[in-house]
Amino acid sequence: DLDRLRRSPTRQSAPSLVDALNRLVEVRSLGVNTLDVSKVPPSRLKLLARTAASARAQAITRMPPERRVATLLAFVHVLEATATDDAIDLLDLLIGDLLTTSKRIGEKERLRTIKDLDAAALRLKQACAVLLDPSCDDHRVRTEVFTRISKEKLAMAMAQVEALTRPPDDDYYDVMMRRWKHVRIFLPRLLHTINFEGTEAGQPILEALRFLHTVEGRRKFDASAVPLACVSKGWLRLVVNAKGEVDRHAYTVCVLEGLRHALRRGDLFVSPSQRWSDPRATLLQGDARASAR
Asked: Is residue 292 scored above 60 in pLDDT?
């Protein structure tokens, strides 16, 4: 069990993230972090934990009983932060891969449609040329346009432009939504295992995460109860339709993207943790801050 618990994830995949979260749950279930170790110097705890992390199981078994217990307790005490960091590291990599892969696929698909877009743009150019021609009287514009290009072809060109162009704030969000099944592999375990905290700037994402946790396992939910403060304009077109209905897939992927950004900015954090902890904890406070000036 010692070898298994101290083994960090080695694969970047959704099932690996589930395994990492299960490892964290198992470490918590040992209940070591409920013990008061405030009288033990932190440096001593870390030294004992490093010993347990690197020593062979047989070597730990041969230790005197008191030293063996102290070494294992220190290891498990530190292991919760390590296991938390491993899980968040993997989550960061998976969401990052989701974003970059979706963008790459979207750009490839866009390149395949560029000829159709060019053809449609050239047809619209013909119509615009008539509109901008000062020698063409206003009452003759429509007649002149339809002389150069038929009404049907003009309508088709407009439809192609509408279908193939993307708004400036659209970062291939629709392509991201195709990875929904990939997200569902780890999402339930993530929502039930990690307790995110945040600064004031991170509250919109926290509120969205709490909502997703509440509706996890339910097929229907009240659209009016969905917190939308974290939804950008680019995502809003996909999250909320014309009827005011909320697309659960789009909303979830939107929240995960925001979660990654917030973690990297330090607006969200977890505890205990070494790499993803509250950045404000390292700031000097009170007398220490005044003496450092």
From this structure: no
Q: Quick check: helix, strand or coil at residue 198?
A: strand
Residue bearing tokens 């030293």: 67
Token reading at 29: 């279930």
Which residue carries 């009404």 as its tokens?
A: 151
pLDDT single digits (tens) 9-57: 888 999 999 999 999 998 888 877 776 676 766 777 777 777 766 677 7
Element (H, E) at 197: strand 197-198
Query: What average pLDDT score do residues 231-245 get?
Result: 89
Cα of first residue to Cα of last residue in the chain, in angstroms, is 49
Runs of H (alpha helix) within the chain = 2-5, 14-29, 42-54, 57-61, 65-112, 114-132, 141-148, 151-164, 173-176, 180-193, 203-215, 233-239, 248-265, 286-292
Ramachandran category for residue 281: left, alpha or beta (phi over 0 → left; psi -120 to 50 → alpha): alpha
Tell me the C-alpha distance between 247 and 174, whole Å: 12
Distance between CA 87 and CA 20 in Å, rounded? Answer: 5
Q: Residue type for 5, please?
A: L
Which string of b and e fits 70-104 if b means at least 16 CB within 10 Å?
bbbbbbbbbbbbbbbbbbbbbbbbbbeebbeebee
Kindly report the pTM of this predicted structure: 0.77
User: What are the b/e assignments for 6-17, b being 16+ CB within 10 Å?
Assistant: beebeeebbebb
Q: Is the pLDDT of residue 289 over 50?
A: no
Which residue would you say has higher pLDDT here, 120 or 189?
Answer: 189
**Quick check: 102 and 176 in contact, CB under 8 A?**
yes
Instruction: Tell me the residue type at 17.
Output: L
